[in-house]
Design a protein that fits this description.
There is one protein chain. With 313 residues, the protein is α/β, with parallel strands linked by helices. The protein has 10 helices and 12 strands.
Length: 313
């Protein structure tokens, strides 16, 4: 069994050694330009076209991240890069779900307890108790009901907030009000106080958080983007913040990364920023999943996490 590995900045030695311990029967190597030797599996992040092109013998390609938009965008330009019969797998959780829960719970509780307001008052040396929000009216709406979205929904549900989710296709999450499809998006937005984005990045979801969508949230709503910068029209968010329609936002992802120094988001007092690290790939958990999935493929089974190329996730 031959496995090739490519990542633009991960330490290849760490991954190769870790996978070798889990799959002692495999031969694992770092892919380098010009390497056309046989391979059964490929582990990749933003792979060069030449790495995968023409490898008809591949049994699977594993994307080293929760999203696969980097590979899908390459396939748009180079459809011959990945043979049609070769399945593409993404890391559905592998520790990222817990990290997303931590980020979402920390941020939402901060808004709910008005810690952002108190921080602004601190800068003015202002001692002023503020009226608490009503928990029953602090409805949290999550765009995306996949593995990460459902994990975040369950973690916030434990705090007693009303939780709702919206997805393209019907999903059921215990104790969560579910909406799906374009026809139910308005109903999902109406009454939402906190909007959390965990959608996959597809042509259908690019720019989905725009002026029109933001205007349908509760007045003074909050926005948390944990998915992709392409989902959010940043100028529309800034306009909504200036108008007071949106009270605050926490952003981990941006249309341009790193975020340009001249971006007005940096200086806005109601915008919190982190550098696209809400959830990072954890090597041990990821290698456990990949090794298990490869063994399943070798046994003729289809592992979880297979990407539907037509849907983009």
């Amino acid at each position: 069994m031959d496995i090739i590995f490519y990542h633009p900045f991960f330490n290849a030695t760490t991954w190769i050694n870790g996978l070798q311990q889990r799959l002692p029967q495999a031969t694992i190597r770092k892919w380098l330009p010009g390497d056309e030797a046989p391979a059964d599996y490929a582990l990749v992040r933003t792979p060069p076209v030449a790495m995968l092109q023409g490898r008809n013998q591949l049994k699977g390609v594993f994307a080293l991240g929760a999203g696969v938009d980097d590979i899908l965008s390459q396939l748009k330009q180079h459809p011959e890069m990945l043979p049609e019969h070769v399945p593409l797998f993404r890391l559905e959780d592998t520790g990222m779900g817990l990290q997303m829960q931590e980020y979402a719970v920390y941020t939402v509780l901060g808004w709910f307890r008005r810690f952002d307001d108190y921080q602004l008052q601190k800068q003015q040396a202002l001692w002023q108790p503020l009226e608490n929000y009503s928990r029953k009216n602090f409805t949290i709406g999550i765009l995306g009901a996949g593995v990460l979205g459902s994990n975040v929904a369950q973690s916030l549900k434990a705090w007693g907030f009303p939780i709702r989710c919206w997805s393209r296709s019907p999903k059921q999450i215990d104790g969560v009000t579910s909406y799906h499809g374009d026809d139910q998006l308005n109903d999902f937005l109406n009454g939402t106080q906190v909007l959390i984005n965990l959608l996959p990045n597809t042509p259908q979801t690019v720019g989905i958080i725009n002026r029109q969508l933001l205007s349908q949230l509760n007045d003074g709503a909050f926005v948390l983007n944990l998915a992709r910068g392409a989902h959010l029209i940043e100028d529309d968010l800034l306009a909504a913040l200036e108008a007071g329609a949106i009270k605050a936002a926490a952003l981990d992802v941006f249309a341009q990364e790193p975020l340009a120094e001249q971006s007005p988001l940096w200086s806005h007092p109601r915008v919190a920023i982190t550098p696209h690290n809400a959830a990072v790939t954890l090597p041990d958990e990821a290698m456990d999943y990949i090794a298990k999935s490869i063994l399943q493929r070798e046994a003729g089974e289809m592992p979880e996490g297979k990407v539907d190329l037509a849907r983009g996730y």
